[in-house]
Design a protein that fits this description.
The complex is a heterotrimer of chains A (293), B (358) and C (254). Chain A is built from 11 helices and 2 strands; from the N terminus they run H-H-H-H-E-E-H-H-H-H-H-H-H. Chain A has 293 residues and is mainly α. In chain A, strands 1-2 form a two-stranded antiparallel sheet. In chain A, strand 1 and strand 2 form a beta hairpin. The longest helix of chain A is centred in the N-terminal third of the chain and has 32 residues, at 3-34. Helices cover 66% and strands 6% of the residues of chain B. With 358 residues, chain B is mainly alpha-helical. With 254 residues, chain C is of the alpha/beta class. In chain C, helix 3 (95-102) packs across helix 5 and helix 3 packs parallel to helix 6. The longest helix of chain C is centred in the middle third of the chain and has 20 residues, at 119-138. Chain C is globular and about 60 Å long. The chains are: A mainly alpha (293), B mainly alpha (358), C alpha/beta (254). Chains in contact: A-B, B-C.
Chain lengths: 293, 358, 254
């Protein structure tokens, strides 16, 4: 493999890896606040892209994207309010199954609205053939958009949880819901907020990567599995761990796919998922966790 | 054989016969086709119900076992060994009677495995994979187990979709019928009614075996694991052993169902291994009631029949997704667990009466 | 004579040394109790001794067999049965069915035999049922046999759990705070029951807070404090031990 080709694969890996990282972060935000693993996380990415494409028909690109992000945030809030808000102490397993069902429903609705067609947003800057030269490899400027936007999201989210009152309140929810309630924190509203935030992040990621990967009604499921893998690999609840894990997964996947037929692309992430679950369920950076009998 | 359980199975057999007669009388014999297919899918669901309802575990990848069984049998009965006829092992297999020659749809001669050894291999392979996978994976609990099984199911789907020998996206077709008795075979141009009764018999026998299992020492051990795993272990129940065995049994049932349905339809495709299929099985188990075999059978027959008849149209996936969400939110123990039991009270063994030995 | 031998057991959780180098012996036919203030490590030690939790170091021998680190069902097969502090009855099963699980190690029908309902299982099932009813009867709750176990009153649930443990026909019974949540009268009945159990040939080790129960029926008492054994003797001697008095009552004088 030549150096230029390697960089090509590396860049592709980073592009996808960034998306995985964002989905993983989305998982963690909801998990951290509620202990729920939201399988519908992948659908937020899909909805972001799809809605943006539809809005772009009548709005300029930046507004279309903003609209898509807002709309998806509303969907996230609705999901929480309709299906989760009123449950008392559901088990994680029950919620995974429920959210799998929800993701199916979202997917079917998307199919109904947008059909089987693959949709695409225009490149934010330049077009399909514009390229920047990086150490001999040609990469699309959209890649820089992806990395920049996602990096900004990660930075802002981390800052939010570290330094704002609201963010700290949400972290308090995660470690001790009863304690948080006793301190007067509005648990229910914070839970809804966590869904809104995750949905927004996913949607924005979906918009920014859409020109490169296109978007289609069924792309959510695979993303959800990979996002979960990333979240676990980085240590469930550890957002920066998810970022590192996401990039790692993206790069490993990219280089492996260069050697294997494309149908086996997903097997890479699943092999990693199984490896993590069986060998080190606390992930690379997480605290020891009890997964076993 | 416990009289009470025999009564239940007898009632089931009677129902099977009545439905067949009614369908012929009402000139809707074509319905028997979907009922037959539903019966085979129900086999998968029953096994899964044992694993999820009784042992209290979760598998989001059970369609994989159906696919392994179906594809193995399909490949073995359609892969033309003619070009290899002179190699040692093919010649040996032929001598032992494992092979069969037939004419395929295009008129050419095919030398392939006879359906019986193919079926045996398929079920054994499925069980072996389930064992190999189950031993490490069943040490996980709850949502970790769920995601691991989901992952495994996805691997099988990817392999089915991506491998040329397995027909890739088109799957395998031209699968010959599976002979059962002289004159009766699963699939082919055989009688619709005969096939229906074969399926009904398979279901009846399976129910008999499962009912026996559930009302036995093993059944108690499984329910104990579900009820309080630590305490079960403290009472001497080797929980790992029972979980793996139950997993393997449910996988073998799914594999057998895969074999039978593949021969019935004459083909199999990668969609049989999809996540959606696995989710459907779980949804039906959830509706039928975790821990109610007859309830699960009824739910499965009804839902699969409606789905196969096309009643859900393009909303098929959405229907099952909705079922899953609704049941999981409002009745995680299953909705039929309550009603059907009361309705079938007269068929249940009376609680508290001393067990009648045989 | 020594049925259960605990040697140099140690266990830490995170940075906390819950049990430090504890050793003691339970001889056949005796009733031994494990006591100590809250946080002394009794529960951990109990879980170590019953083979439920693997120790960081040390050995637990039951009837000569090393059971530390082994899965709990092995201990049960060797004849060691236990109850749980926060009663772990099997949900979704009747009282009788709960006790019948106790007969699991005394029966052998496996998957194939059960599915085919082979003849030997007929008698085995009838036996299991009969013996389980006898156990419920021994505990005085035979009338509750067909009630859903987790719907019973607290004291009755305790009785079912005990019946279940006894159904294993154990050589040694480990009781984890058996008097928790019982009133005075029930506690007295319990102490009589434990003595009857011992008299029927079953060795008993119990963890308990209730002093009257412990001092009344125990042959020997082990006292723990901050994970260490500070006394092991008969009740009368232990009660007079100045170290024991200090850990329970605090420093009397500097």
């Amino acid at each position: 493999m030549t150096g230029a080709l390697a960089i090509q694969y590396l860049v592709a890996g980073l592009t996808y890896g960034t998306i995985y990282a964002v989905v993983g972060m989305g998982f963690n935000i909801i998990y951290n606040t509620t202990g729920i693993i939201n399988f519908a996380q992948g659908e937020f990415v899909m909805l972001g892209g799809m809605i943006a494409v539809s809005l772009h028909a009548i709005l300029p690109l930046p507004l279309a994207i903003a609209g898509a992000v807002l709309a998806t945030m509303v969907v996230g809030a609705l999901i929480e309010l309709v299906f989760i808000h009123w449950l008392s102490r559901p088990t994680v397993l029950r919620m995974i199954i429920v959210t799998i069902g929800i993701s199916i429903l979202i997917r079917e609705v998307a199919l109904l609205i947008w059909g089987h067609n693959v949709r695409v947003l225009p490149y934010f800057t330049g077009n399909e053939i514009s390229a920047i030269d990086l150490l001999g490899a040609r990469i699309s400027p959209q890649v820089l958009w992806v990395v920049a936007v996602c990096a900004a999201m990660v930075a802002l989210t981390t800052a939010f949880f570290q330094w704002t009152m609201l963010g700290r309140q949400m972290r308090a929810c995660a470690s001790n819901q009863v304690g948080a309630a006793v301190c007067g924190l509005p648990i229910r509203r914070l839970v809804t907020l966590s869904f809104v935030l995750s949905a927004g992040m996913g949607a924005l990621a979906g918009c920014v990567v859409c020109p490169i990967t296109y978007t289609q009604y069924g792309m959510g499921t695979g993303l959800a599995i990979k996002g979960f893998t990333v979240a676990i690999l980085g240590g469930l609840g550890n957002s920066l761990g998810a970022v590192a894990a996401g990039l790692l997964l993206g790069i490993i996947e990219s280089f492996t796919v260069s050697q294997l037929p494309t149908a086996f692309k997903d097997t890479v992430s699943i092999a990693i998922l199984l490896g993590v679950l069986l060998l080190r369920p606390s992930g690379l950076f997480g605290a020891r966790v009890a997964t076993r009998a | 054989m416990r009289p009470a359980l025999l009564r239940q199975v007898a009632a089931f057999v009677a129902t099977v016969v009545v439905i067949q007669l009614a369908s012929v009388a009402g000139e809707k014999a074509f319905l028997l086709t979907q009922l037959t297919m539903s019966a085979y899918y129900t086999l998968v669901v029953l096994g899964l119900s044992l694993f999820m309802g009784y042992a209290g575990q979760i598998s989001l990848g059970h369609a994989a076992f159906f696919a392994v069984g179906g594809y193995t049998s399909a490949v073995m009965t359609t892969f033309d060994l003619g070009p290899f006829r002179s190699t040692a092992w093919v010649a040996a297999a032929g001598k032992v009677g494992l092979l069969a020659t037939r004419t395929d749809a295009f008129g050419s001669q095919v030398l392939a495995f006879h359906p019986w050894p193919a079926m045996a291999c398929a079920v054994l392979l499925t069980a072996a994979i389930a064992f190999a996978v189950g031993v490490p994976v069943l040490k996980l609990k709850g949502h970790y187990l769920a995601m691991a099984t989901l992952g495994l199911g996805t691997i099988v789907y990817s392999v089915a979709l991506g491998t040329a020998t397995l027909g890739a996206a088109d799957g395998i077709s031209g699968v010959p019928p599976l002979p059962v008795l002289p004159g009766i075979a699963v699939g082919g141009n055989g009688s619709r009614i005969a096939n229906y009764y074969v399926a009904g018999t398979v279901l009846a026998v399976s129910m008999l075996l499962l009912l026996n299992l559930v009302h036995s020492r093993v059944g108690r051990a499984l329910r104990a694991i579900h009820g309080a795993e630590d305490a079960a272990s403290a009472m001497g129940v080797d929980t790992a052993h029972y979980k793996v065995r139950t997993f393997v049994l449910s996988a073998a049932m799914a594999g057998l169902a895969g074999v039978l349905l593949t021969h019935y339809n004459g083909s199999i495709g990668p969609s049989e291994a999809s996540i959606m299929k696995s989710v459907k099985y779980v949804a039906i188990v959830a509706v039928g009631g975790m821990g109610s075999l007859w309830g699960t059978l009824a739910a499965s027959m009804v839902l699969n029949f409606l789905s196969l008849r096309g009643y859900f149209g393009t909303l098929d996936d959405a229907v099952f997704g909705t079922i899953l969400v609704v049941v999981m939110l409002f009745a995680p123990q299953g909705i039929l667990a309550i009603d059907l039991r009361r309705a079938l009270r007269f068929l249940r063994p009376t609680r508290g009466a001393p067990a009648e030995p045989g | 004579m020594a049925l259960l031998e605990v040697s140099s057991l140690s266990k830490s959780f995170g940075g906390v040394r819950a049990v430090r180098d504890v050793s003691f012996v339970v001889r056949q036919g005796m009733i031994k109790a494990l006591i100590g203030p809250n946080g002394a490590g009794k529960t951990t030690l109990f879980n170590l001794a019953s083979g439920f939790v693997p120790p960081d170091s040390g050995v637990v021998r039951f009837d000569g067999h090393a059971i530390q680190g082994q899965p709990p069902h092995r201990s049960a097969a060797l004849g060691l049965a236990r109850t749980f502090q926060n009663i772990k009855l099997f949900a979704g099963m009747t009282a009788l069915e709960n006790v019948m699980v106790g007969r699991h190690i005394r029966s052998r029908a496996g998957f194939l035999a059960s599915m085919l309902h082979l003849p030997f299982t007929w008698r085995e099932e009838a036996d299991v049922r009969r013996r389980s009813l006898e156990m419920l009867d021994f505990m005085g709750i035979a009338s509750l046999a067909d009630m859903e176990a987790t719907s019973l009153a607290y004291g009755q649930q305790r009785a079912v759990e005990l019946a279940r443990a006894l159904a294993c026909e154990p050589r040694m019974l480990l009781l984890d705070e058996p008097a928790a949540g019982l009133n005075m009268r029930e506690t007295v009945e319990l102490s009589r029951l434990i003595v009857r159990i011992r008299d029927s040939g079953i060795t008993v080790l119990l963890v308990e807070h209730d002093m009257s129960l412990v001092m009344g029926i125990s042959d020997e008492v082990v006292v723990l404090s901050y994970g260490e054994k500070i006394a092991e003797a008969d009740p009368a001697t232990v009660q007079k031990d100045p170290q024991v008095i200090r850990i329970y009552l605090g420093e009397e004088e500097c």
